[in-house]
């Protein structure tokens, strides 16, 4: 995936870890514009969207990507993927639990 021009993600999932993994490699994502991809892919920055799960829609998106592929900077794509890192999740989860515990104890 690290040497791919882009990763095509045509599924609709609640989250979908594979587009995040592609971005962690610095690879832009061409994604179906529904579901979790809308939260993990940033149009024009870490990838782009297509609006129908059809061959023609995917082909059109790949052609758009080819026309603008120089806009996608692998280091910036990777940096954006870090918002889904394990360390961030652990840190925010612990903070959430600590705050909930404090609130519970103060009642």
Give structural notes.
This protein has 5 helices and 3 strands; from the N terminus they run βαβαβααα. The chain is mainly alpha-helical and 107 residues long. Strand 2 (29-32), helix 2 (37-40) and strand 3 form a beta-alpha-beta unit. It has helices spanning 17-24, 37-40, 55-68, 74-81, 86-105; strands at 7-9, 29-32, 47-50. Strands 1-2-3 form a 3-stranded parallel β-sheet, sandwiched between helices. It is elongated and about 60 Å long.
In short, what is this structure?
This protein is mainly alpha-helical and 107 residues long. Helices cover 50% and strands 10% of the residues.
Please supply descriptive tags for the structure shown above.
mainly alpha; 5 helices; 50% helix
What oligomeric state do these chains adopt? Answer: single chain
Quickly count the helices.
5
Strand content: 5-15%
Average of the residue pLDDT scores:
95
What form results from the Cα inertia axes? elongated
Q: What distance lies between the first and last C-alpha atoms, to the nearest angstrom?
A: 51 Å
């Amino acid at each position: 995936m690290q040497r791919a021009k882009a990763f095509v993600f045509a599924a609709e999932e609640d989250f979908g870890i594979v587009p995040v993994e592609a971005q962690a490699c610095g690879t832009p994502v061409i994604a179906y514009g529904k579901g979790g991809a809308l939260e993990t892919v940033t149009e024009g920055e870490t990838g782009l969207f297509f609006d129908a799960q059809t061959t023609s829609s995917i082909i059109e998106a790949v052609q758009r990507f080819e026309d603008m592929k120089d806009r996608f900077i692998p280091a910036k794509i990777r940096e954006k993927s870090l918002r889904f890192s394990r360390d961030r999740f652990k840190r925010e989860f612990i903070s959430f639990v600590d705050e909930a515990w404090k609130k519970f104890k103060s009642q």
